[in-house]
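Incident log, entry 3
Record: Hydroquinone 1,2-dioxygenase large subunit N-terminal domain-containing protein (347 residues)
Problem: checksum mismatch between cached and fresh output.
Input:
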Amino acid sequence: MAMKESAFAGTEEEISNPRGLPINSTYAVNPADNITGYKSFQAGSFKFHRDEYFCYVTTPTAVHTMPADAFLRALMRDVAWGFFYGTVNFDQVFGTTNYYGEVDMFMGATNEAYTSAGRDFVERFKADKLMDVFKKMVSDWTNEGYDPFAAPMETGVPWGIKNGDNDEAVSRERVTARRMVGLPGDTPVRTDANGYPVNRMFDDVPQDQPEVHAEPGFEHEVSAYNLFGYLSRSDVTWNPSVCSVVKDSLFCPTSEEYILPVEHGNDRCEWFIQLTDEITWNVKDGATGRPRAVINMKAGDCCCMPADIRHQGFSAKRSMLLVWENGSPKIPELIRQGLAPDVAVEF
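Fresh output:
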C-alpha cells in the first residue's frame, strides 16, 4: 500500500482540526411540541425539530428539510455505527465527520454549491456528548411500529404525530465479534431459537452448518459457520457487522435492500465483495459531491472504494455484501498527518 506525501504543513491539531474549531458544549432537549408531540433538540448552533412528515435542521446559515423516513434511517446508522469511519452524509447537505473522540457536524460542508456561496457551517463536538443527543432524538422521533433499520416493506410508517416508540429496535447492539461468529464465548450463530428467522427473500438459502472435528485441546481454536445462512437471518439492512477479526482485518458482512440511507465518505480504502444478487453504487467526489462513477456489482464482483469519494448503494432485491475494513489503530494518526493513502495500490 503506497503512502502519499503529506499534503499538509502544520501541527497535529491544525491537521485534524483545519478550521480551528473549538469544542462546542451547548446541548438541549426541549419539551414536546403541543401539536405534534415531538421533542426538539439542540447541539451547539444546530437545532432539530420534526413534524408529521419532515425533519428540519436549522443553523445560522440555512434551514434544511429532509423527509422523516430518510432522516431517521440515516440517523439510525450514525448512532449504530458510532459515527463510523470518516463522513456520514445524511444527504447532499447535512452530516457528520468522525475524528475519533471528536465529531464535526456540518451543513453544506461537502456540497459545492454551499461552500462556493459561503453558506456552509461546521461545529465540533465531543463524540460521546453528540451521540447522547442523537440517541435521544432517534428514540423520540421513532414511532411505534416503525423500524429505521428495516427495509421499507418490512416495517410500518414514520409519519404522523408522536405515537409511542420503538426503543427495542433503535437500541439494537451492532454485532462486533472479537474473533469470529460462533466461537465459544463470542457472538452466537443466528437461529430461530435466539430470535432470528430466515428473511422472506432468503428462503432458498441452505441452513446446514459445517461439521468441525477439532483435535483435542483445539476445540476453542478451530471453528466454522455458514455465513450465507447467518446473513439470511439478518433482521436489519445496510448495517455491516464485524463477523471475523484477523489482526486489523475486519470482515463486516451485511444484507442490503432498497437504498443505503447515507452517502458514506470513508477516510480509508474500503473493499466490497458482492456475495449474492447485485447492488448499484453511485460514487461521488467526497469533498464536492460531483458524480464520479456508477458501479453495478453482481455476485462475485469485488471493488475497492477510494478514501476520497463517497458512495451510496441501491439494491432492488435483498442481497449479501461483504464489507472488508482496515481497522488499524494507526490510521487515524495517518489521517491527521495527511499520510493515509486514498487508493489501495498505485501503479
